[in-house]
Amino acid sequence: MHPATKESPLPALGLGIVAIVLVALALRPSIVSVGPILPRIIDAFALSHAQASLLTAIPDLLMGLLALPAPWLAHRFGRDKTIVTALAILGVSTLIRAFAPDVLALLLSTVGVGAGIAVTGTLLSGYIKVNYPTRAAWVMGIYVTGLSFGSTLSAVITAPMAESVSGWRLPAGIWSVLGLLATLAWGYVYWQHVRTHDASQKTVAVRAPMPWRNALAWRVAAFFACVNLIFYAMVTWTAAVFLEHGLSSSMAGVLLGCFTAAFMLASPVFGAYSKSLDRRVWLVSSAVITLLGLVVMIVAPLWAPVPVIAITAFGLGGAFTLGMTLPLDNTANASETNAWTAFVLTIGYLVAATGPLAFGYLRDVTGSYASSLYMLIGIAGLMIGMACWLKPAEH
């Protein structure tokens, strides 16, 4: 059993929730906004489909690589100070990328985007574990809802903005504002903790080892990897897939918005109703829903594309929320949670980074997106099998 932990008083709880939401809103637009304007970026820099996929693959890769040193950074500099710095890097890099004069600057600024997202996302799980120990799934649902809402805003607004200004730079750079707001929000959290001498800042002093030899941790990481591989492949290429089927760029952007909106709606639903620590029924259900949506998408892509995209995203959203909750379910304290989260994010995002690349490469090789979609169907099938083996550990 998990040891009893006293939750934060109401004022601190409310402050934390608001800050979590503002940070969550900022963590995905810099990635998702690339999808609707990707054809324009390809034309501007004469990129291949595989090269263009690096704009989402690089952040995925860094979200994996930098998850490992994130707990060390929190230990060395303090959790909140590290988060504030990472958010500032995210906002500045998003703005710089919008003014990139060449491919090198485009990719280097994308590295900054990935670094900011990676460190922030890893450390927030430890914050949730400390401050909301008995409400972890609920708060994680709020966090993922914020991620999805930010994704939805950027998916829906970016394409029309690009058409109105006849360019990609303003729609790419406008999302740096969310990074600035998030930096200010977590700066206030940091100030509050310093002012009140919050003891939770010291929880990172004792560092738990990475669960490299824990079979359950590997299974959790593998499930999370499959979820994110499909998610980032869909975020990167959904608009392009439907553009190839003859839809307008605005309609393709709407479909991407439907994808992120349904993903968002799934988060609080699965977070609220999955109350038992043994979440396998919900994990399998989310994977089955994802698989059904992908199958219909390839069999009849123009038959009711909005609900089909929504169904696929709803399953993925549920799987993502539960996947983010699993490290909290299987650890006893914030230090272990940080270690498990870093491990799961490392494995998960390193694998997920191959999704957009493989999707774009198969399109280059075959001349259509059919083989790319079949790849995602196979991965959704793997999710169903892996979900059955995610019985939680006992403490």
From TrEMBL:
- Which keywords, in A-to-Z order, does the entry hold? Membrane, Transmembrane, Transmembrane helix
- Stretches of the chain forming a coiled coil according to its record: none
Residues in Major facilitator superfamily (MFS) profile domain copies: 14-395
Q: Which GO terms describe its molecular function?
A: transmembrane transporter activity
Top-rank taxon: Bacteria
Q: What PROSITE patterns does its record include?
A: MFS
- Is Transcription regulation a UniProt keyword of this protein? no
Instruction: Please state what the protein is called.
Output: Major facilitator superfamily MFS_1
